[in-house]
Amino acid sequence: MPNPKINLLEFGLLPRGMRRDVAAAYVGACVTKFMDGVKSGTYPQPNAEGVWDRAKLDAHFDGKLETSHPDPFAQRERELNGEC
User: Where in the chain are the domains?
Assistant: First the structure.
């Protein structure tokens, strides 16, 4: 279990293992959409402790080519309206 007194982000370091909310934020998704993506196979599965490996998340994006450019303003509006 990580030491709650140490916050790696304060030192500019990203943790190798991430819990669900941090992993979702890391890939730029809300938790609901991230978990939908995990269930569908879009995102990798966590390990047995429920921790996502940052390297696997990076590898997921390294292997993907973005074919469209989503509108960031529309996404933000959906988030503000409580949608994911």
Answer: 8-80
- Name 53's bridge partners: 17
50-75 residue pLDDT tens:
999 999 999 888 886 454 456 667 77
Contacts of 42 (CB under 8 A, 6+ apart): 36
Greatest CA separation found in the chain?
42
pLDDT tens column, 5-49: 567 667 777 889 999 999 999 999 999 999 999 998 889 999 999
DSSP string over 15-49? -SEE-HHHHHHHHT--HHHHHHHHHHTSSPPP-TT
Backbone angles phi, psi at 17, to 5 degrees: -105, 135
